[in-house]
Amino acid sequence: MYIHTPPPARQIDDESTSIYVRKEPVPSLILHQLRYFARPVNKERQLYFQLKNGEQLNGIIEKVKGEEVLIRAMNQEIWLAAESIAYITAK
């Protein structure tokens, strides 16, 4: 015996396409160092920047704007987010 039934309902899985990026707070030490090293001095300070992704930069701070810093390194200017810096030392 055959009973005609409707086809099974397709279940539609709703996938979220939202990406939530949790912003890590910038350590106050890094911000303090950036502001300190950005102060004008008689001689330009060569600084060593160790980034969280493993890269290393040698350069001079040109400008600090909020939580971003403009660095002159190897005849080019690079904007960095303060949160990407692991630590800064003077050369």
Descriptive report:
The protein is mainly beta and 91 residues long. The protein has a domain of 63 residues: SH3 type barrels. 12% of the residues lie in helices and 36% in strands. It is rod-shaped, with a radius of gyration of 25 Å. The relative contact order is 0.22.
Compact description:
The protein has 91 residues and is mainly beta. 12% of the residues lie in helices and 36% in strands.
Please report the number of helical segments: 1
Q: How many runs of DSSP E, i.e. beta strands?
A: 5
How large is the share of residues in beta strands? 35-45%
| SSE run | HEEEEE
Shape: rod-shaped
> What characterizes the major β-sheet?
5 strands, antiparallel
Helix content: 10-25%
Which radius of gyration do the C-alpha atoms yield? 25 Å
Distance between the termini: 88 Å
Q: Which ranges are low-confidence, i.e. pLDDT below 50, for 5 or more consecutive residues?
A: none
- Name the CATH class of the domain at 28-90: Mainly Beta
